[in-house]
UniProtKB/TrEMBL annotation:
SUPFAM superfamilies: PLP-dependent transferases. This is alanine transaminase. Keywords: Aminotransferase, Pyridoxal phosphate, Transferase. Belongs to the class-I pyridoxal-phosphate-dependent aminotransferase family. Residues 36-395 form the Aminotransferase class I/classII large domain. InterPro entries: Ala_Aminotransferase, Aminotransferase_I/II_large, PyrdxlP-dep_Trfase, PyrdxlP-dep_Trfase_major, PyrdxlP-dep_Trfase_small.
Length: 405
């Protein structure tokens, strides 16, 4: 019988946030086992609810959003995004430079498919959000990982970036606020990255989906605001900040000087048109959503749920012998380090798989974020406090007897 294998284009593509460990979790769930999922930033299952005003707005818009929109998106949505960009100090962007998407994920893939040929390179952080590496690879390019330094609050290592720029490098991905580490980059660091891009003619791909989820009174700086002379593609959306991940509502904005990228823009327009348009009902609430940020801010201050859960998970993890964690300043992830010598750990995927089977908690191993050493894992701290306390207690107990060697 004829056999059909997966495309060879997928040989080096992975997305371990929903990979083999998730498959095992699903097998266990099918058998009736209750699993606490700390592997994915999905607010709804943990009791977070979108603002009622937003839901009412979408409901009232349904009758008007039954047809296709312009391939870039509704004009009202794009105008609101341009207004938001200017609020962030980004002036070189107009409505024709904005593309709405079924989440940012779709647009990441589109942006790589429109740019890369075989042999082209894109600088991607390590650790990364793995869709970036997967999209570069699937488009035929090569993801070259630059190191983010845990000892320097997970900031990118500028010298490492410099050492990895070649004549084949077309751009750099900057994830700020960062997933999986939760760090927030300073303006000074971003200016250093901009300087490198200016010197080497690189496109900046700015993943800023968490820019409205910043803690401790800190301020997010959009890298595009520092580089009006460079092409910067900024990615953002409502999935996290407005708690509507399932609605799939994202966008990308082409900012700065686009004069040297006319062919690339043609490619983006072609790919955007091929999928006709993104989810129109979700687009219809972008304007309203970007004018209502107070609901989100309530979660980020003392007494707010995300703030208090961040405080707890940071302290609790650092109290477990053999675990250390840098305090996240944004988003809702922490990327703790595990003492691999203490526990004889040589395979981080095996570690999270063993933990899943023993304690019924699903994590994502550091290798899933293209971190080379088997000494990190990511925790999503969205669950209610009691669930987080239970998870930390179970992890602490597990590590009293776990050894891989």
């Amino acid at each position: 019988m004829r056999k059909f294998e997966k495309s060879k284009k997928l040989d080096y593509v992975c997305y371990d946030i929903r990979g083999p460990v998730m498959d095992e979790a699903n097998r266990m769930i099918a058998q009736g086992v209750e699993i606490l999922k700390l592997n994915i930033g999905n607010p709804a299952p943990f009791g977070f609810r979108a603002p009622e005003e937003l839901l009412m707005k979408m409901n009232s818009n349904l009758v008007h959003t039954e047809g296709y929109s312009d391939s870039r998106g509704l004009l009202s949505a794009r105008e609101a995004i341009v207004k938001y960009c200017r609020k962030k100090g980004i002036e070189e962007v107009g409505t024709d430079d904005v593309y709405t998407g079924n989440g940012v994920s779709e647009l990441i893939t589109l942006s790589m498919q429109g740019l890369l040929d075989s042999g082209d390179e894109i600088l991607v952080p390590s650790p990364d959000y793995p869709l970036w590496t997967a999209s570069v690879t699937l488009a035929g390019g090569t993801a070259v990982h630059y190191i983010c330094d845990e000892a320097a609050d997970w900031y990118p290592d500028i010298n490492d970036i410099k050492s990895k720029i070649t004549e084949r490098t077309k751009g750099i991905v900057v994830i700020n606020p960062n997933n999986p580490t939760g760090t927030l980059y300073s303006k000074e660091l971003l200016e250093e990255i901009v300087k490198l891009c200016r010197e080497n003619g690189l496109i900046i791909f700015a993943d800023e989906i968490y820019d409205r989820l910043v803690l401790d009174g800190l301020v997010h700086t959009s890298i595009a605001s520092l580089a009006p002379d460079l092409l910067t593609i900024t990615f953002n959306g409502l999935s996290k900040s407005h708690l509507i991940a399932g609605y799939r509502c994202g966008w990308m904005s082409l900012c700065g000087d686009k004069s040297s990228a006319k062919g690339y823009v043609e490619g983006i327009n072609l790919l955007s048109s091929m999928r006709l348009c993104s989810n129109v009902p979700a687009q219809s609430v972008i304007e309203t959503a970007l004018e209502m940020e107070e609901e989100t801010k309530k979660l980020l201050v003392p007494g707010g749920r995300i703030y208090e859960q961040r405080e707890y998970i940071y302290e609790a993890l650092n109290q477990i012998p053999g675990i250390s964690a840098t305090k996240p300043k944004a988003a809702f992830y922490v990327f703790p380090k595990i003492d691999i010598k203490r526990f004889g750990i040589y395979d981080d995927e095996k570690f999270v798989l063993d933990f899943l089977r023993d304690k019924k908690i699903l994590l994502t191993h550091g290798g899933g974020f293209h971190w080379e050493k088997p000494d990190h894992f990511r925790v999503v701290y969205l669950p209610e406090m009691e669930q987080l306390k239970s998870a930390c207690s179970r992890l602490s107990d597990f590590l009293t007897y776990y050894r891989q060697e």
